[in-house]
Amino acid sequence: MIISTSATRCVTAPRSVVSADVPRPPSRNVDFFCAVVIVGLLSGVAGLATTIVLQHVEHLTYHYTFGSLLDGITGSSPVRQALGPMAGGTVVGAGWWLLRRRTEVPPLAGTITRHERVPRLTWSIDALLQVVLVGAGASLGREGAPRQFAAVLSDLGTGWLRRLSPGDREILLACAAGAGLGAVYAVPLAGTLFTLRILLNTWRLRPVGASLISSGLAVAIGSVMTHNEPELDWPRAESAYLLSVHGLALAPVAFVVGWVFNKVIAAARPAVAIRSWVLIPGLAAAGLLTGVCSHWWPELPGNGKSVLTVSLAAGMTLTSAAVILVLKPLLTAMFLRAGGAGGLLTPSLATGAAAGTVLVMLLNQAAGAHLHGPAMSLGAAAGVLAVTQGSPIWAAIFVWELARPPIRMLLAFAVTAVGAHTLNKILSRRRRPNPDQRVG
Length: 440
Fold this sequence. Notes:
By secondary structure, the protein is an all-alpha fold. The protein is built from 18 helices and no strands. It has two domains: 196 residues, Orthogonal Bundle (Clc chloride channel), CATH 1.10.3080; 187 residues, Clc chloride channel (Orthogonal Bundle).
């Protein structure tokens, strides 16, 4: 299982472990504090390492030196656009075939909550293959690899602290996963909330303090690559109060897109991880199709940052936004169906941003409205992410930290995220069968 979560919700930890309020000797608290610092530093290193590998693979695939992935794709030849992702899929498919035929690759969330041994080598290889696949153009998120590698380094770096309890180690591994996310996207608050609300599902003081410290340290280390700059460039926006009203109207659209995204991903994901040689032609074919499509829509390859960037810059036509809205989740599903592994956060964000762009352009052109396109696009992205991850406040903060607009814009994102999440919960309750009406 991939944390993302990507569309699949992470397994929550048993409350008896993370919320147990028992007295601890001072020596254990000292060990725990030292471990938290180590986890934060090593998670930052994990974020740096995966980012460096990702950039090198992108440059190798599309043969460029400077600029963004979108610049590299648009500047490469049609042959390289098609064959680059196919070659990457072939190499990674062979790697996963060799890895999975020899050992299991357990899900990170389940391993944390069940206090199982961390498979350091297996997770490290799996994380490397994820980064290479995304760097070669696969329509998957890159956030799964740094979380996994951060957990590996943190487990290795804190293994000598023998006085840590199983509950402490659960908190530390969850902090590593959240801090790894924070490091690669320069989102310390979102990294903290990912640990607390999606992995541990707790507000206890011990994990709250640990996640704040570890995520902050990881982002500081990761700033060597991110330069503490937001992932996205935010243009000037209009009043947040008016945008909040628009955000409430946008919530049903975000809910529908998020619900469809979840259904597509659930249908595509294999029930059991693919272990046979078909991984190689499957991922190669998915890469080839992505590469061919990128000739007309160069925003499609990669985790989805290109779509978000172009949405904020108002650089998409109505036709291209509509095509990306359909193709982005389908290509993501194709890589998963072929046996690929990766995050789903940014693909769902990109799908939401495309949906918001389509809606804004339709209303502005057909109805003569004057809606702020970038704000509505990111608001829709936050709403879709809230549906796919089940945590609206985290989704709003994550999207806000990606662009760092004025703080008042957080309200607009939160309105859409909470509204879409509420609609999803209402639909889920209505679809749940009533036990009293079941036929015995």
